[in-house]
Amino acid sequence: MSDLDIFRAETRAWLEANCPPEVRGPAKSEDDAIWGGRKAVFATPGHKLWLDRMGARGWTAPEWPAEYGGGGLSREEAKVLASELRRINAQPALLSFGVWMLGPALLAFGTEEQKRKHLPEIVRGEVRWCQGYSEPGAGSDLAGLQTKAEDRGDHWIVNGQKIWTSYADKADWIFCLVRTDPEAPKHLGISFVLFDMATPGVTTRPITLISGKSPFCETFFDDVRVEKENLVGTLNRGWDVAKYLLAHERTMIGAMGEVGAGRPLSAVARDSIGADDQGRLDAPVLRARIAEMEADAIAFRASLERVGDQVKAGQAHPAVASMLKYYGSELNKRRHELLMAAGGVDALEWEGARSHHGQAARDWLRTKANSIEGGTSEIQLNILAKHILRLPGA
Amino acid sequence: MPLILTDEQSMLKEAAEGFLSENAPITHLRQLRDDRDADGVSRNLWRAFGEMGLAGVIIPEAYGGSGLGAVEAGIVAEAIGRNLTPSPFLSTGLLAVRALIDGGSEAQQTDWLPRFAAGEAIAAVAIAEGPKHRPDRIATRAERAGNGWKLNGSKALVVDGHIADVLIVAARTDDGVGLFLVDPGVAGLLVERTIMVDAHNAARVDLKDVSVDADALLGAADGSVLDRVLRLGEGAVAAEMSGAAQAAFDRTLTYLRDRTQFGKAIGEFQALQHRAAHLYSEIEITQAVILKALQALDAGSDDAALLLAVAKARAGKSGELAVQEAVQMHGGVGMTDEFHVGLYMKRMRVAQELFGDAGYHTERVARAGGY
């Protein structure tokens, strides 16, 4: 047996013994999602146990160094872990902006103290993070942000407003872009800082979306004190950190439809519509569209895997995350359009005894944000045209 | 296995691209076409394939080949696609070799494989019949006759059939489809060269009471050898299409940078930038699944057939988009015979039909999913 085979056997045995039955099988609703944090809410005790056990092993962040609480796995071992988790239909032990976004940025730009303080808390799901990027006047043109941080010697005083802050009302800490030099060209006066959402002067207001849910907030800062030790990277060069983190965010959003996807679209359609006498979905045009979608999804998953391997081998272009973001989010929107078409009338019921709380329709509407959040599809295409295709004037 | 090329595979890629861009760039295809070459391919070039070790990339070392796999076959096919090189690599170096390795006797392998590896002999595999790729509907019959077989039927799109030293014909028996080794000079066999729209060559082959010996049947007549030939063909043609799509796209990007209108490069217009960036994404994703499918084929994975169906479907769709955008973005000159992009469009159309178009393979995805 190769080392990898041994690792697979050990992983399988550990998961069999440690993955609680409550977290096996598709999530029943978004309440099953494990986000952790000081205000964590768990669907069942099994969900809490799952986070605690996976966090203690570092397998909520399998490829992070073990010295910061991560799993310390190689890329190939992490693939084995992912496939073993899929094999038992395990729900994710932790959904975390800390794991997906801040962690990689801290590993690249953080001080030793910052890594030792924040990374283990992220891995164990003890602190939930949110991202303070967009502002009312700075959406696609993010570098135009105006939230300002005034230097007061050993600390800054932050004033301003963020918007579309995902789960700001549930988060414990924020990683935030602030303007530290109002005189400099816009990209060169921004810094990347961290602070506790419980700091006096921070308020949040959820925004109701077309899905009827409020995953995003407006976030207000009134004379918020931020210690100087919470600067990540170099003063006024926060844009470099921001861009690095955005690449991870974009990959995450692009992959969103492919990880934790519920039942296959074709199975949903078959249950809803039925089959003809040859076992084919009894709606030929929809069947063809579903097959095209599933073929594209298989190809896209291969692309996610390939880019991951290229990153590991140092062969990836940094802007390739924009390709994953663009394609993955458009793919997920297509998937949910087809889920609505497959569900027909059943998918329209928003409230009512058999409506499942309108989950299908709410999920469909939620996906419309995929091609807006983290930079719109049009911004991703701009980035690809400029940085990868090197087209003039882009 | 990581979804990137190994060092050895990268070296093969460099060698194949270097060799083809030097010895058989697009001008080579043009010359064969414009000279109305009697063969439509260069036998000298095929021998050079042999000297370079490319003709025998999947032929076992014992027969003078390199003994490599589907990933390496795809690397060579992709380089061929980039350069639109006409050669017997697909027909002989891959399809016929696969059939002989999987179904041929020791004597048949010894007879043919070393000559294929050296680029000294050419084979053609006759599978297609009707206008569309439907291997499940092969109507050419093989009836038992005495100690051997009698073949009757008609074949189309027999790549390199007009110059083949040996034919391998798919025909239906009472047990299923078998592959039969046929001497092109045998009585009752009629081979008619067809120059295709892309200036590559194929043949129509009619078989009327063609007699072959019992040992002409390669392996079992249960469709299993044919299936293995089809899988390799799907993967190799997908890789060739990916190379052609990438080359057409690269030429288009150059044109977008160089061509000026309204006082600036047309590549500055966002309407074109976004289409180019979308096309880039489609090409990248297709390349990923092609490599994954070829790796799965080499590993003998259960999902290889599904991945190959996705690979060929995606190669068809993104390839078609690449050549259509190439002609449109080149504008008027894209319509001229002088510019190369039209040749890519023509090749893509033929490759789309080889081993099944995007629609055929999307249907396979649905069936594999049980819906």
Please characterize this protein's 3D structure.
The complex is a heterodimer of chains A (394) and B (371). Chain A contains 11 helices and 8 strands. Chain A is an alpha+beta fold and 394 residues long. Chain A has 3 domains: 3-95, Butyryl-Coa Dehydrogenase, subunit A, domain 1; 129-237, Butyryl-CoA Dehydrogenase, subunit A, domain 2; 256-388, Butyryl-CoA Dehydrogenase, subunit A, domain 3. Chain A has a 4-stranded mixed β-sheet with strand order 1-4-5-8. In chain A, strands 2-3-7-6 form a 4-stranded antiparallel β-sheet, with no helix packed on it. Chain A is globular, with a radius of gyration of 22 Å. The mean pLDDT of chain A is 94. Chain B is α+β, with helices and mostly antiparallel strands and 371 residues long. Chain B has 3 domains: 7-121, Acyl-CoA dehydrogenase/oxidase, N-terminal domain (Butyryl-Coa Dehydrogenase, subunit A, domain 1, Orthogonal Bundle), CATH 1.10.540.10; 124-218, Butyryl-CoA Dehydrogenase, subunit A, domain 2, CATH 2.40.110; 224-368, Butyryl-CoA Dehydrogenase, subunit A, domain 3 (Up-down Bundle), CATH 1.20.140. Helix content of chain B is 52%, strand content 16%. Chain B has 11 helices and 10 strands. Chain B has helices spanning 7-23, 26-34, 43-52, 70-83, 89-103, 106-117, 224-258, 270-299, 304-330, 341-353, 358-368, and strands at 123-126, 141-145, 148-159, 166-172, 177-182, 189-195, 201-212, 217-218, 260-261, 264-265. In chain B, helix 5 packs antiparallel against helix 6 (106-117), helix 5 runs antiparallel to helix 7 and helix 9 packs antiparallel against helix 11 (358-368). Chains A and B meet through helix 7, helix 8, helix 9 and helix 11 of A and helix 7, strand 10, helix 8, helix 9 and helix 11 of B.
